[in-house]
Amino acid sequence: MSEVLKAAADGWTGVRAEAGAARPGRGGGSSPEVVAAVAEIVAAVRERGDAAVRKYSARFDRWEPASFRLTDAQVADCVAQVDEQALEDLRWCQEQVRAFALAQRAAITDVEVETQPGVRLGHRNVPIERVGAYVPGGRYPMIASAAMSIVTAKAAGVDHVIACTPPLDGAPPALTVAAMHLAGADEVYVLGGVHAVAAMAVGTETIGPVDFLAGPGNAYVAEAKRQLFGEVGIDLFAGPTEILVVADETADPEVVAADLLGQAEHGPTSPAALISTDAALARAVLAEVDRQLETLPTADVAAVAWRDFGEVHVVADREAAAALADRFAYEHVEILTAEPRWFLDTMRQYGALFLGEGTTVAYGDKAIGTNHVLPTAGAARYTGGLWVGKFLKTVTYQECDPAASARIGEICARQCRLERFEGHARSCDVRVRKFAGALTSGR
User: Does the residue 49 lie in any domain?
Assistant: First the structure.
């Protein structure tokens, strides 16, 4: 049982009890209008290539350069426009992502074992050849996304990364282009939206098709990735960003409120939730959120998200808090309690955990080194976020010496005939006959 303080259109209501709460709601997928619009653009790019890309770029972004791909000189010009302190910070943040991704890569090992005499089985971790990275623009220039997709792909050993980002005020966005270049993009395109994603996936006369798409985007970009999945691989089906804070009486209401609003400012449909074992702390956070909204420059967005998608749960103890947090299965989960590592050992359903007051979702989003492309809408129940392993294919191989082949062939032929696959069985029989001498000779 938990006490729940729910957001209402006219503010926050009182405390009420909620018993046996169901798993929090999941995203219902794209609207029919978004699905239809995306399908039309993808089909047009597939059929008309560059002409369609140019048409949609002009319509949506008023952007029709001679070439959407930036030359080395244009990239250098963008980098030159960026303040040196910003470049230094970009390099530092990207190096954190690179260092962690390389550590993850080092933990992924190839395997070869002799399962019985003469039988060698193994797997190799092979990088994807070509990756397309989408780096969003719009109200918030997502320069950190360049590191999360491009740097991580390169750490995995991906040969070629092409990166797309929308124009800004009729020109290449210098800061984002610099981030993409420093991250290691092999080709940089100033191109945004569904037509950019489709061009990377299916290819055009001037854009070579990729094998895998990575990077966040709006609802249209997410739907484009959904429709193209299978033709290419994708990182995640991403919805609005989410934050859940688990806090006890030791938490600072100012910190909790700041962290909730820090994610609520992403968009008006971004959920922000608090689970607390202390009712006084919960009420203090509600008051603190109201206070901080008075001066937050992005309050026009954050206040709507908090009003429509914010909630606060008060539970009896940390066991109940962990159980409820697992039902949420949110993208970002902050643990602001006396013993945060207890939750690390207990919880199973989350995109990323942030343990203790010393860290925050913003660190993970921008600078600390873990990847910020994470599962939303309950997907944390079955997947983690983007990491170096997503850019690797684990492929297997097998090898038998003659004696082992003859032994296995007899068994395998019988199995094939049980399944009525006579052709399969005969491919075993021919080896049994060919290698029968190896059994008697002991080779």
Answer: yes
Cβ-contact 155, 177 below 8 angstroms:
no
User: Is 252 inside a domain boundary?
Assistant: yes
Q: Which of 332, 334, 357, 372 is catalytic?
A: 332
298, 173: one domain: no
Residues in the chain with pLDDT values less than 50: 1-2, 6-23, 25-26
Domain count, the chain: 3
Of 331, 334, 357, 372, catalytic = 331
Domain annotation covers residue 392: no
Residues sharing a CB contact under 8 Å with residue 392, sequence separation 6 or more, in sequence order: 108, 125, 126, 127, 128, 156, 157
User: Looking at residue 92, which CATH number applies to its domain?
Assistant: 3.40.50.1980
Please check whether residue 254 lies inside any domain of the structure.
Answer: yes
Residue 331 is among the residues annotated as catalytic for this protein: yes
pLDDT digits (tens, 9 = 90+) for 10-68: 333 333 323 233 345 445 568 999 999 999 999 999 999 999 999 999 999 999 999 99
| 87 and 194 part of one domain | yes
Domain that holds residue 434: 401-441
332 assigned to active site:
yes
